[in-house]
Amino acid sequence: MAAIKEEDRLLRRCLTLLPRPARDTPGDSANLSSRGTLSFKETLGHIAFWDDFTVNFFQCKLDAGSMTMPPPVEFEERSRKALEQIRPLPFGEVLARYLESTGALIDFLTSRWDELTEQERHDFWVPLKHRRHHRISLYEAFGLEDVDDSASDPDRLVAEA
After folding, report:
1. How far apart are CA 63 and CA 3, in angstroms?
2. What CATH superfamily is the domain 2-160?
3. What pLDDT was estimated at residue 71?
4. Rounded Cα distance, 151 and 112, in Å
5. Quick one: pLDDT band at residue 27, thresholds 50, 70, 90?
6. What's the pLDDT tens digit per position in 103-156?
7. What's the pTM value of the predicted model, to 2 decimals?
8. Distances (CA, A) of 7 to 77, 96, 146
9. What is the residue extent of each domain of the chain?
């Protein structure tokens, strides 16, 4: 959980370093542009999709009476569709979705960690590594220095969006 919080903090720091026009522009570093780097807004929306899916999946798994556990099949297709849906949205709305979904993930881990099996706890490394990959890609694509900084205030970030 501490690592997810730290990745969130570093991603928020990236937001404070990017000029507003760059939020919707894909990164253009030579080593990443050929792979189709996502814009900052797209990255936030993509991570929000992952966080929402993760929380929903594990909540359903832990709730014995739940019959609606989302199958991981066609996950990539659903992820692509979610990305298409966020592209036309204003940056502030996507940022709010990201903050909400990341908050829900952290709340879930805080309240239900003890209910997870060792394997389920281990499975949370996947969204952490995914988040880290996208954050590092953004820093590289936009030529940002990855240095330590104080935590960002989510209320201020939403107000600025």
Report:
1. 26
2. dinb family like domain (1.20.120.450)
3. 63
4. 25
5. low
6. 999 999 999 999 999 999 999 899 899 999 988 888 888 787 764 444 445 454
7. 0.79
8. 25, 17, 11
9. 2-160
